[in-house]
Specification:
Strand order of the largest sheet: 4-3-2-10-11-13
CATH architecture of the largest domain: 3-Layer(aba) Sandwich
Largest sheet: 6 strands, parallel
Number of helices: 12
Shape: globular
CATH class of the largest domain: Alpha Beta
Radius of gyration: 21 Å
Structural class: alpha/beta
Strand content: 15-25%
Helix content: 25-40%
CATH topology of the largest domain: Rossmann fold
Distance between the termini: 43 Å
Length: 327
């Protein structure tokens, strides 16, 4: 019999999720049992599951300290706030800057301080300590590369929405991505950022940094010499390159390999923006496998469908603090 994952298994998982969400009745639940009982149950699942499939969203990186607003934004983008009134990194990515020199200066900072530094808190490393001896796989909508920085195996990772470390051509015919670390390093230096003893960029003491880069530093496509953009999924122009498809195939194979086994679907910090990628498929996979357990760790959004409540563990709160309690 042909496997349901033989033909674009990642898309098949999304279809299953969308189908099951239409069939659910009875609303959502915050789970059952005391908090202590839920923590004990999750600890047992982490220790005994045949496989752990991690689904990670923005809440995981926020827990690790990679926040997009507040003190961290003010430290690195104070000048953009003063001149343009931008108050957070997310909205700044959509701001209509007056020229390309200013726009790419912004993106150099945005990329560096989210992709090429370790996060302030060791949440990703704590997570790795919990699963490194397990048969695990990670699917994530995060684009900050923090799983690899923490030491997770690349072959066990699927970044569905892109990578801050990659550019793509604006020409939809060019189905390739291009590493940008060398460009980011040059653009940060051109703005006047100083490098510390660890090689990371910091704001100089006099806070004299530029909000532009030289015109000759504006990135270009190495194939066509045309314009580039970030390899971030926003519409159908997103490039799914060979690496993306290879990761999607590995994810589909892992789902097939673990089908029917004692699997822990561990959802961490997944919000309501893209539930069809991780949350709904995890629910569907739990429905079809009575040996599976779905665990949702999230601040104010730790919920599960009432129909699969006996198979679920919901823990409200800071994801990093919950993970730390198991070490």
């Amino acid at each position: 019999m042909q496997s349901s994952y033989d033909n674009n298994g990642y898309a098949e998982s999304i279809r299953k999720g969308l189908n099951v969400i239409r069939a659910f009745r009875g609303g959502l639940s915050a789970g059952f049992g005391s908090r202590e009982e839920r923590l004990a149950r999750l600890k047992t699942e982490l220790e005994t599951a045949d496989a752990v499939i991690i689904g990670a969203g923005a809440g995981l990186s926020a827990s690790a300290g990679l926040t997009y607003s507040g003190e961290r934004f003010d430290r690195y983008f104070y000048d953009y706030r003063e001149r343009f009134g931008i108050t957070d990194m997310y909205s700044g990515g959509f701001y209509p800057f007056p020229d390309e020199e200013t726009r790419w200066a912004w993106w150099a900072r945005h990329i560096w301080f989210n992709r090429y530094i370790d996060p302030p808190k060791p949440v990703y490393k704590d997570l790795l300590a919990l699963v490194k001896e397990k048969n695990y796989f990670v699917i994530t909508t995060n684009v900050d590369h923090q799983f690899q920085r923490a030491g997770f195996e690349k072959k066990r990772l699927f970044y569905t929405q892109g990578d801050y470390g990659l550019f793509q051509s604006v020409d939809p015919k060019i189905k390739k991505t291009f590493d940008n670390e060398e460009w980011v390093t040059g653009a940060m230096a051109a703005q006047g950022f100083a490098r510390d003893e660890n090689g990371s960029f910091t704001v100089p003491q006099d806070k004299k940094i530029l909000m532009t880069i030289p015109t000759e530093l504006i990135p270009r496509c190495p194939v066509s010499d045309g314009k580039v953009t970030m390899n971030l999924r926003s519409d159908d122009s997103f490039v799914e390159d060979a690496g993306w498809h290879a990761a999607a195939e590995r994810y589909a194979a892992f789902l097939e390999e673990t089908s029917g086994k004692h699997v822990l679907y561990l959802e961490l910090g997944v919000g309501a923006n893209t539930p069809a990628i991780i949350k709904y498929p995890f629910w569907a996979l739990t429905v079809e496998n009575p040996r599976a357990v779905y665990a949702c760790l999230n601040r104010d959004m730790a919920l599960c469908p009432k129909q699969i409540e006996p198979q679920c563990i919901c823990l409200d709160g800071d994801v990093g603090s919950i993970l730390k309690s198991f070490l």
